[in-house]
Design goal:
The complex is a heterodimer.
Chain A (H helix, E strand, L loop, with lengths): L1 H8 L1 H26 L7 H9 L5 H36 L11 H15 L8 H19 L5 H26 L2 H11 L8 H20 L1 H7 L3 H6 L4 H23 L5 H13 L4 H25 L8 H23 L4
Chain B lengths: L2 H4 L1 H27 L7 H8 L6 H35 L12 H15 L3 H5 L2 H21 L5 H25 L4 H9 L7 H28 L3 H6 L4 H23 L5 H13 L3 H26 L17 H21 L5
The chains are: A mainly alpha, B mainly alpha.
């Protein structure tokens, strides 16, 4: 508690304060863009009348309240969960390059969802996250088992890459098996997209969000302990293996819920914690974890707005934009990371 | 040069292995042509190929549909196998293959950009493989340059190659989706497919195959010297950098030409050279042709599996659904576990 106070009143604390303010402001601007632009494009008073009053035409009301708002809300929820998942995963594996898309979790989850979709299994929509979780756990376990005995961040990532390739091979076969109608939907889904999401999707996400986010916040202290290194953490009475496994399962849960609703949106979870750490200049999980969620949410909604508006009227799935953005940043990390020797 | 193969028993072994590989390819060709929705016995296939078959329909199926696909698969596999062997030799990295270091994705990217955006007479003037060639080569050079800046490691090169590939694949998806291309074309470009390939594709492929494969064989001896290390090779009077550049060019030619016809088929260029190294060692004079033959064998076999496996999977409501698997899926399922095995072999047992 004392440490938290110190953090809050020190220079970093001020920085955190106005960073949050800045992010909220930025998020509000992007949210306005998300709600107002498109077809039809609305002016500020029109939007305000629709949102806060009973005004506006029927069509405009439907478009804004039933299409754009749920999409915005879902983007915020999913972005926050991805940001949290990335922070916890990087902390748990002590690997700043870790991310669910590189360690088989995303591939496993999407494979599970694809199996349900292609084989037309009669399962309720609410159970999708559970199956995505199972698939993600399977993918993650495969990578962890296959990487047993290897050293360094890069080895782990390469092995994750190979396992993801196997899972993707199965995915391609599944896609080829599907009837052509499913295939188009499935393909767009597998790129990761927030298009055509409704309040149903939001309602299916919120319970998981309410469970997983407090659990993530409960990890803060352990993340800080793990950062001290395995020996110090063990001497502080932390059962390292158990903590790691629990954290990875939590990450998989966070990722699986997002995959079940929007497909594997890549690299947000890698990027958000890095941006946060870089911006704040601290690695303290007390500051990094909550802010990563915020950054993830703003990032994803920004990318989604860009995806919707940039090449209007054609919409490119947001997963492609995040991969372009995040893949490039990842390259920079790999290249500069070696110079600074922050891993290996 | 061939001291180690002068010994009669060694020589017999080499000749024997090559004979086995050639026989394997011949058998697979017959199987590939004969086995499909309309099953033909090897004898019927031979008769049809020799134009002795009485049935005009069989002759048409064999000559117009199955033979071109089979020889395209064989040739593309050979090209990818040799390209993989060359890349592994010049980069001295056994984890490399054209699909993992960006060569395939770069070639596809430029080919897609070219077909989508270059209009009018330029398209007919410049052959697609030439365009793809520049893309593939630029990508490889970019990846190698990114890795050589600081302490270069083998694993790091693969990781950078994979990320560059992922970025380029995203751009390809972006372009194809933006142009509202159908899924089949996206599949073709991203995973590789041999569906519907006929004689016109063969016409694009074969000149490049001849140039690339002959060039690779002509440079195999120099590649052999290159393996001694840069200093020794320079001492022996080899222009090291030029040789390396020519070999890279050849690998890019082979990759680009096969990619612009059959798409980015993965892992053939990884498995082929490794099995060749297991059988005959890593000396380019033998390993280049052996990798080529193994690559051809593997792609023929994968395509055969891809074409025929689906017909036997009974799904409710899909019994009559006719789709063939993209061959890239089969090669990925064969190759990715193999890649995993290689990674473990080189990463786990070697302690840093």
């Amino acid at each position: 508690m004392k440490a938290a106070k110190q953090l809050w009143f020190s220079g970093t604390g001020n920085r955190i304060g106005w960073t949050i303010g800045l992010l909220v402001l930025l998020g509000a601007c992007i949210a306005y863009g998300q709600l107002a632009y498109g077809s039809p494009t609305l002016s500020v008073p029109e939007l305000a009348r629709i949102m806060f009053g009973r005004g506006g035409e029927e069509l405009q009301r439907i478009i804004v309240l039933d299409m754009r708002v749920p999409r915005l809300v879902l983007g915020l929820l999913v972005g926050a969960m991805l940001g949290a998942a990335g922070t916890i995963m990087q902390g748990a594996m002590n690997n700043v390059l870790a991310g669910p898309e590189l360690l088989g979790v995303s591939s496993g989850s999407s494979l599970a969802i694809a199996i349900i979709a292609v084989l037309h299994l009669p399962l309720p929509l609410t159970s999708y996250p559970v199956f995505a979780l199972l698939g993600g756990l399977l993918g993650g376990c495969l990578v962890v088992l296959a990487a047993k005995g290897s050293h360094g961040a890069i080895s782990m990532l390469l092995i994750g890459l190979a396992v993801s390739a196997v899972l993707n091979g199965m995915l391609i076969i599944l896609i080829a098996l599907g009837t052509s109608n499913d295939v188009n939907l499935l393909y767009l889904y597998l790129l990761g997209s927030l298009a055509n999401r409704h309040w149903d999707h939001v309602l299916h996400t919120i319970p998981w969000f309410l469970v997983a986010i407090p659990l993530s916040l409960a990890c803060i202290r352990l993340l800080n302990v793990l950062r001290l290194g395995d020996e110090s953490a063990a001497s502080l009475g932390v059962s390292i293996l158990r903590v790691r496994i629990a954290m990875l399962v939590l990450c998989t849960l966070l990722v699986a819920v997002t995959v079940a609703q929007c497909g594997p949106i890549g690299y947000i979870s890698l990027l958000a914690p890095h941006l946060t750490r870089f911006w704040l200049g601290t690695v303290d999980a007390k500051a990094v974890l909550p802010l990563s969620m915020l950054v993830g949410a703003v990032l994803l909604v920004a990318a989604d707005t860009a995806a919707r508006i940039f090449l209007y009227p054609i919409e490119i799935p947001v997963g492609i934009w995040t991969t372009l953005l995040g893949g490039g940043s990842f390259l920079v990390l790999v290249l500069t990371g070696t110079r600074r020797r922050t891993y290996e | 040069m061939n001291d180690q193969y002068r010994h009669p028993s060694q020589r017999t072994k080499v000749v024997g292995i090559f004979l086995i590989l050639l026989t394997g390819i011949a058998v697979l060709l017959l199987l590939h042509i004969g086995y499909g929705k309309l099953r033909l016995s090897p004898g019927e296939v031979l008769l049809a190929l020799l134009n002795q078959s009485v049935d005009a329909e069989v002759r048409h199926i064999v000559w117009q549909l199955r033979l071109p696909r089979a020889i395209i698969a064989m040739t593309a596999g050979m090209m990818l196998g040799v390209a993989g062997a060359i890349l592994q030799t010049i980069l001295r990295n056994p984890l490399i293959e054209p699909g993992l270091i960006g060569a395939s994705a770069g070639a596809v990217l430029l080919a897609v950009v070219w077909t989508l955006f270059a209009g009018g007479w330029i398209v007919s003037l410049v052959p697609l493989p030439l365009v793809a060639l520049f893309g593939g080569m630029t990508a490889v050079m970019l990846v190698v340059a990114l890795n050589t800046r600081h302490n270069a490691s083998k694993a790091r090169l693969v990781l950078i190659g994979a990320v560059v590939t992922a970025i380029m694949q995203s751009i390809i998806s972006l372009l194809l989706l933006q142009q509202q291309q159908g899924l089949s074309s996206i599949f073709l470009w991203l995973f590789g497919s041999l569906n519907g390939k006929g004689w016109s594709s063969w016409a694009t492929l074969w000149p490049w195959a001849v140039i690339g494969l002959l060039g690779a064989m002509a440079y195999a001896r120099k590649a052999d010297i290159l393996q001694l290390g840069d200093l020794s090779a320079t001492g022996l009077g080899l222009a090291v950098n030029r040789t390396r550049f020519v070999l890279l060019l050849l690998a890019s030619v082979l990759t680009a030409a096969s990619v612009s016809v059959v798409g980015a088929i993965g892992f053939i260029g990884l498995i082929g050279p490794h099995i060749a190294a297991l059988l005959l060692g890593r000396r380019p004079l033998l390993s280049f042709p052996a990798s080529g033959l193994l690559g051809g064998l593997l792609l023929l076999a994968s395509d055969w599996i891809a074409q025929n496996s689906l017909l036997r999977i009974p799904f409710i409501g899909m019994e009559h659904y006719q789709a063939s698997l993209p061959v890239g899926a089969v090669t990925t399922l064969l190759g990715a576990p193999f890649f995993l095995y290689l990674l473990r072999k080189s990463l786990v047992h070697k302690r840093k």
